[in-house]
Amino acid sequence: MAQRATPESGRLEAIWIKRAHRGPMDPVGAADLVEGKGVAGSVDRSRRRQVTILSREAWSACMTELDAQLDPSTRRANLLVSGIQLALMRDRVLRVGDARLLIGGEVTPCERMEEALPGLQEVMRPEWRGGAFAQVLAGATVHVGDFVEWE
148: which of 10, 47, 89, 128 fits an S-S bond (Cβ 3.0–4.6 Å)? Predict the structure, then answer.
């Protein structure tokens, strides 16, 4: 079983599963990350973009800049992490509980963000504020509260 977050690591704050294209993001307490596939039960996965990850700090910065308070699920990412910098971490391995994720690159914000809040798409562009996408190198069941750290 994965260790819980410590002061030296980041933390998995939330997990969302998307049941249908453009459908709602369902919050869950745990999810299976499947090697080479992504989040079990979530649609819109591809070989390159199996899991999407958003940092709480980046989301908070966007909300502060826009003087707004949207829920982070608005971003439509699978995982919300805190205490971990995602920007410019392409080709690095991120451990989330017992899972290992290879960061493939930045998730660029789409027009859905602008539909959610005017100006959001633009403030998400700098410093990978839109999050990162990853491939699952080693699958595991992850839980809200699990540690998150760079290998």
Answer: 10
